[in-house]
Amino acid sequence: MLKRHLLIIMSGLSIGALAVILVLMGNPGNYGVCIACMLRDISGALGLHRAAVVQYLRPEIIGMGLGAFVAAIATKEFRTTGGSSPILRFSLGFVGMIGMLVFLGCPVRTVLRLAGGDLNAGVGLIGLIVGIVIGTYFLIKGFSLGRTAKQPPSNGYVFPLLVIGLLLLALAAPAFIFISQEGPGSMHAPLLISLGAGLFIGIIAQRSRLCMAGGIRDLIFFKDFHLMYGFLAVFVAALIGNLLVGSFKLGFTGQPLAHTDGLWNFLGMLLAGFTAVLLGGCPLRQLVSASEGNTDSAITVLGIIAGAAFAHNFGLAASGNGVPLNGKFAVVIGLVFTFVIAFAVCKFKVGGDVKYEKGSGCQGSILS
Predict the structure, then answer these.
(1) Fewer CB within a 10 Å sphere, N or C end of the chain?
(2) Largest CA distance in the chain
């Protein structure tokens, strides 16, 4: 147990420290690591949306996918499974991403923003916790997207191959890949440094099963703090790092890549937390699980990418100027959709019961 706690604490400390370093090396403020934002940038680089300020093949995501894949292969934990309500997973990933882009960050960036002094992230964190509590209520009532099953090994290798394809594109930088010339997409650490940081994060996240949604879920289910130690460590390391380099700024206004609309910070992350629990993991855990051969997680990641493209193509995503009206409507519709899915699945009990184990992350804790 002590080794498990030390592993997840060291993982959190490493991610928090690397996030500060990546910002120093060129990433946007409080944006050293943000799975949602980075997948959004990749979506733009591939031309899925044309928001010119958020287009870049983020090497951190590529590194995380490859690092988790290598770690899973090395430890014989790569297993090809899936087939559990793929259309629902895609849809929940889609709407969850809209919530994160209204807030401007995933659960990891929520902690990093708070460690940088951004009090708007505190409002978002409360929304995230409320969303996770609501989702956990539905788990207790029997919500399940169904049992996973073993699939042909080739299915599990598709996602890592896609990540390798992105790596080749990032290295070759062909003309058809979009790269922002201004805005957040133009701000990035050197490719090899970003890739190396991502590789390390992918390995430690795969080994530690780091997942914030799973941590809060475990607190409710089992009164177990194990997974939460990791995110507390992320906060502590990033806070100390920001104080040391002089990038800590306490307050609501003037924060990098943030807005001060508290209601929509709250509701955006409520939607993100709600969908994360129903899906079995936050974006970081989904990315790692997809790299371990879980095709359900791969479908979820594709849903997140599609949600990013939709949000920017139809003017839903927030900016430093606030949340557009379309984004507000989209969050409300997303919440209604998620509640309907949760009630419907609980009523019809898709796939039977699901058993959870404490301290094992989200996706990895579903036993079939």
Answers:
(1) N
(2) 54
For residues 6 and 229, the answer to whether their CB atoms sit within 8 Å is no
For the chain, counts of helices (H) and of strands (E):
14, 2
Which residues are within 8 A (CB) of 305 and not within 5 positions of it... i.e. 6 or more apart? 39, 42, 43, 48, 97
**304 - beta bridge partners?**
none
CB 193 within 8 A of CB 62: no
More confident residue, 106 or 3: 106
Residue 288 is encoded by which pair of tokens? 């790692």
End-to-end Cα spacing for the chain: 25
Start-end of H helices in the chain:
2-24, 35-45, 59-74, 86-103, 107-115, 120-140, 153-172, 191-208, 212-222, 226-245, 262-279, 283-291, 295-313, 325-348
Residues 6+ apart with CB under 8 A from 263: none
- List the one residue out of 146, 83, 78 whose CA is nearest residue 293: 78
pTM confidence score: 0.93
Say how far apart CA 52 and CA 181 lie, in whole Å: 8
Query: Tell me: the pLDDT tens digits for 159-188?
Result: 999 999 999 999 999 999 999 999 999 999
Q: How far is CA 70 from CA 18, 24, 80, 165, 206, in A?
A: 20, 28, 15, 16, 10
Tokens of 275: 């969908």
Bridge partners of 251, per DSSP, are 118
**Distance from the Cα of residue 217 to its chain's centroid:** 16
Report the sign of the C-alpha dihedral through residues 110, 245, 255, 318, in that order: negative
Query: With contact defined as beta carbons under 8 Å apart, do 196 and 73 qualify?
Result: no
Residue 85 in contact with residue 342, Cβ under 8 Å? no
Q: C-alpha angle with apex 117: 184 to 192, nearest 5 degrees?
A: 40
The structure tokens listed for 118 are: 């951004």
Is pLDDT of 359 > 60?
Answer: no
Q: What percent of the chain has pLDDT over 70?
A: 95
Q: Are 40 and 312 in contact (CB under 8 A)?
A: yes
Distance separating alpha carbons of residues 368 and 350, to the nearest angstrom:
13
